Amino acid sequence: MNYRHAYHAGNIGDVLKHAVLARLIVYLQRKDKAFRIIDTHAGIGAYDLTSEETQKTGEWLDGIAKVISTPMPDDVAALLAPWLDVVRANNPGKDLKLYPGSPALARKLMRPVDRLTLTELHPADFDTLSKRFAGDHQVKTIHLDGWLALGSFLPPKEKRGLIIIDPAFEEIDEFDRMASAVIKGWRKFSTGTYACWYPLKDRYGLRRFDEALKDAGVKDVLTLELSLGKSGPDTAMLGSGMTIINPPYTLAEEMRTVLPWLRDCLRKGSEASWSVDQLIAE
Ligand code: SAM
């Protein structure tokens, strides 16, 4: 396992992922009934933007740093507020120093009745993650292969939940692993919301993933993409997407407001683009 998210925290992929994640959790908050969030590839929870790793790549300078410092229209600001308020709360000074990853973001948006299950496989990253949430009775950290979490922890006892699937895409067959794990999870818990992130690099892998969901009979799947320039298997990542199973009915419209603004804010060239597509009907 070579991938360490510390080198990439706050980058353009995290921007899409965490903007969407916050909207999904805000929607879950609409009902009083408790929910569970399962984050299968959790990372370390939050990232020090002054660290050697983040300074080395500076990817966050092209991501969160631009988003937070660019004026935005009121409708975009209102939709991004649940995410950006958490980023601001972590950075009370004028400089960005700490970037909340998916666990820290989810934890901040949970209510006292809600629960968070985090799995992380990298031993050192798991150690950091578990220390971060030690003593927090609403959060369970587990040193486990995240692909097994989907088989083991579903359905959650709350019967309401969000599963965040954010692999490192280090392995050539990551899309295929994601397809079989998500389908297995969906068969056990078909009413849950599944949010799967992917880099826009391997179009063939993505097509296999989409086809596998269709063949398995999964319904109501939304695809969101944000690309800041032309990228491919041999270039740096310039875009990413999310496949959302059972999205809130509000999400597509929200993203039609947010994604064009993010594209303009973060664009790297004339080929920047965004899309919101219903991949599979309800
Ligand atoms: N979700 C995090 C966030 O948004 O802050 C970032 C996660 S990062 C993209 C992917 C993480 O998955 C890395 O920390 C990596 O160590 C971990 N990982 C890789 N393979 C894994 C596996 N099979 N099971 C669980 N974690 C894994």
TrEMBL record:
The active site is at residue 166. The record marks 3 as: Interaction with substrate rRNA. Residues 1-69 form the PH domain. SUPFAM superfamilies: S-adenosyl-L-methionine-dependent methyltransferases. It comes from Roseibium polysiphoniae. This is Ribosomal RNA large subunit methyltransferase J. S-adenosyl-L-methionine binds at residues 18, 41, 102, 120, 145-146, 166. Keywords: Methyltransferase, RNA-binding, rRNA processing, S-adenosyl-L-methionine, Transferase. Coiled coil: none annotated. It catalyses: adenosine(2030) in 23S rRNA + S-adenosyl-L-methionine = N(6)-methyladenosine(2030) in 23S rRNA + S-adenosyl-L-homocysteine + H(+). Belongs to the RlmJ family. Specifically methylates the adenine in position 2030 of 23S rRNA. Monomer. InterPro entries: PH_domain, RlmJ, SAM-dependent_MTases_sf. Its EC number is 2.1.1.266.
